[in-house]
Amino acid sequence: MAPSSTDGTPANEPPPGTQAIGRALTTLKLLAGQETELSVSRIATELELSPGTANRIVRALVAGGLVTHNALTDGYYLGTGAVLLGQAAQRGFGLDRALPVLEQINAETQESVNLAVRESGESVVMLRAQSTLPLRFEQQTGARFPLYTTASGKAILAHSADAEHYLASLPERLPQLTAHTLDTPARVAAQLEQVRRRGYSIDEEENVAGVRCVGAPVLDSDGRAHAAVVIQVPTVRMPRARVRELGVRAVTGAKEIAQFVPINRVMSR
């Protein structure tokens, strides 16, 4: 007889309804990443679902207030319920108190500023204060990139308990996002040591060509990093002399955020 979970479900089978919930969550994530409405047929195609299944999912999400249906276009987009959930999550994480810090750095430097967190092997943008200068790097919250390619990822890794395990898990030759991306775990490890000594990380066009970044770790009481403050600047506006200036500013911003944001909540391994 197969072992069972506490609810009577065989241990090797998901609980009833798990598939439906998973599909609904995937649909919400899909809509969250769009700037325009999506039709049922597009949702079905993107998620590899039948039109009937996709239709049932979006109707349930509309009924729950998480998705809104535009009757004129027959498209779907995130609803007010999703907005309220997002706002509640931001308050719970303290991100509503972190945003003014990013906005202050943005006002002082006129450059784009992010708060990013680690999610497994990626760096994910949680908050952003966008530069208003004509030449700037456009990026959306929710954008994610490999840890080893970003200033945020390197700042976090340099102060993470599992940094050695992460490096050991990487392939001998790392996938390249630009011509400047670090290509071996050994080179990443060397940069992490520099981050520890210097206090901030540098992305030398390693993630996006033409964009140079500095990042500072947001440390908890144990000295571990769960997030990073990052200043992103077009390379033409970021000479070497400015790197240190902005790196120091990122450090002061990260320290300020660390005082009041329970940032360990937003980190997922």
TrEMBL record:
Pfam families assigned: HTH_IclR (PF09339), IclR_C (PF01614)
InterPro entries according to UniProt: GAF-like_dom_sf, HTH_MetabolicPath_Reg, Tscrpt_reg_IclR_C, Tscrpt_reg_IclR_N, WH-like_DNA-bd_sf, WH_DNA-bd_sf
Residues covered by the HTH iclR-type domain: 18-80
Alphabetical GO biological process terms: negative regulation of DNA-templated transcription
Ranges for domain IclR-ED: 81-263
Keywords on record: DNA-binding, Transcription, Transcription regulation
GO molecular function term, any single one: DNA binding
Designated name of the protein: IclR family transcriptional regulator
Species this chain originates from: Amycolatopsis antarctica
